[in-house]
Design brief:
The protein is mainly α and 208 residues long. The chain has one domain. Helices cover 80% and strands 0% of the residues.
Length: 208
């Protein structure tokens, strides 16, 4: 197990990174604004579930594949960006959808699945685990996979707490966004998702 000092430094670093809005935060706030706070909180759970997948991948070494293979990185990046764009297009096609439908159990399940897939298909998250977590792993303190698991779960908890605050704040500040009087709510949210997907594609090209 990592030392208490290592854990404190790690938590501090996670907090510093978590408060800076990134694509996941924008995604969560957009969901919260367009479908209500429940959808925002479900998105937080979906992002966390995707993080668990990345933790497992880091433990078995799959993250190393993304770092070693430019082709694998590009394929996963394209899949993630494409899925964001797909979600955005779907929002454009949801004109006239009622709030009841958006808040239905089936709708919340889809929201959870969308958030999870978006995070799983984010190769930068996998590379983050590969580049960031090892800095806090001490091989003299026991099993490396066990330490990665502990650190990964701590990071997920910190990020989920921050994401929850963003979801609540987004729903409150943008409450009028979902009003029936706002005719183009779906179009605006769809544009946000498509913008995230395009941004991911552009960022990927600048990397290569």
């Amino acid at each position: 197990m990592p030392t208490l000092q290592t854990l404190l430094v790690f938590v501090s670093a996670c907090l510093a990174l978590a408060i800076v809005p990134g694509p996941a935060v924008v995604y969560i706030v957009a969901r919260s604004a367009s479908q209500g706070v429940r959808a925002g909180l479900v998105s937080v759970l979906g992002i966390a579930a995707g993080t668990i997948v990345h933790i497992a991948a880091a433990i078995v070494g799959l993250s190393a594949l993304l770092q070693a293979s430019a082709v694998a990185f590009e394929l996963v990046k394209l899949a993630g960006a494409g899925y964001l764009i797909y979600i955005g297009i779907q929002k454009f096609r949801e004109r006239g959808a009622s709030e009841t439908a958006a808040e239905s159990m089936q709708g919340l399940r889809k929201t959870f699945a969308d958030a999870m897939i978006v995070n799983v298909l984010n190769p930068k998250t996998a590379l983050f685990f590969l580049a960031f977590l090892p800095q806090f792993v001490d091989l003299t303190r026991g099993s490396a996979p066990q330490q990665i698991l502990v650190l990964g779960l701590i990071m997920m908890l910190v990020y989920s707490t921050s994401d929850t605050m963003y979801a609540l704040a987004g729903a409150r500040l943008l409450h009028g966004f979902t009003s029936r009087r706002f005719r183009y709510a779906n179009e605006v949210v769809g544009s946000i998702y498509i913008g995230l997907g395009i941004t991911a594609l552009v960022a990927g090209r600048s990397r290569s």
